Amino acid sequence: MNQDRRDRLRDAAIAVLAESGGRGLTHRAVDAAAAVPAGTAKNYFPTRDALLRGVAERCLEQYREVAAALAGSGPGPADARQLAALLAGMLRDVAGPGRVRVLAYLELQAEAARRPWLAALLDPIGAADFAAYAHLLRSAGLPAGPGHVRALTLALHGALLHLLAGAPATLAAAGLDDLEGFARDLLSAVLPEAAP
């Protein structure tokens, strides 16, 4: 197997998922998105489950790459103000350059609700978020108890859906039309004693 072509097909499948949703993920659509001859995706991923597995594995690789880049970008936020700025930047990425990656991941999560094997493949991504936000809270010198970490992580996860949908009234109601303000307000709500 040609690993470069396999990665190209998996990246194309991520684009298809983001553009067309789970129902649009077909071998033919992946071939077209990857600009490869018809039947190529089927040769690499013979079944739809094999294609879903390949995409999930690629999403996990991309998540680890993003996490490593964040970890390598310095010691972490030094205080609540810096943490709020970091969270706002992460949310901006979801609404911008990371949109395709996150949309595909959420489509896979919907598929995983009906496929336990897929849920198991995606589990490290969701579980790692809790540890990552605990680390960020500790780096900022803030309380990082389980309740704080859960509240922050789940609130951020919930925000993703609204950011991706981009409905202006909902964004305004959620405070997501001002990502810096949203991040500050979220930290104040989760950690009232450490408002940025």
Overview of this protein structure:
- The protein has helices at 3-20, 27-34, 40-44, 48-71, 80-95, 99-112, 116-139, 146-165, 168-174, 179-190.
- Helix 5 (80-95) packs across helix 10.
- It has ten helices and no strands.
- The chain is mainly alpha-helical and 196 residues long.
- Residues 3-63 form the HTH tetR-type domain.
- Keywords: DNA-binding.
- GO terms for molecular function: DNA binding.
Helix content: over 70%
Strand and helix order: HHHHHHHHHH
User: What's the gyration radius in Å?
Assistant: 18 Å
Terminal Cα separation, in Å? 51 Å
Q: Helix- and strand-based class?
A: mainly alpha
Strand content: under 5%
Number of helices: 10
Q: What shape does the CA trace take?
A: elongated
Question: Assembly type of the shown chains?
Answer: single chain
Number of strand elements: 0
Mean pLDDT: 93
**Spans where pLDDT lies below 50 across 5 or more residues:** none
Q: In short, what is this structure?
A:
This protein has 196 residues and is mainly alpha-helical. The protein has helices at 3-20, 27-34, 40-44, 48-71, 80-95, 99-112, 116-139, 146-165, 168-174, 179-190.
Provide the fold topology.
Blueprint: H1 3-20, H2 27-34, H3 40-44, H4 48-71, H5 80-95, H6 99-112, H7 116-139, H8 146-165, H9 168-174, H10 179-190
List keywords for this structure.
about 200 residues, mainly alpha, elongated, DNA-binding
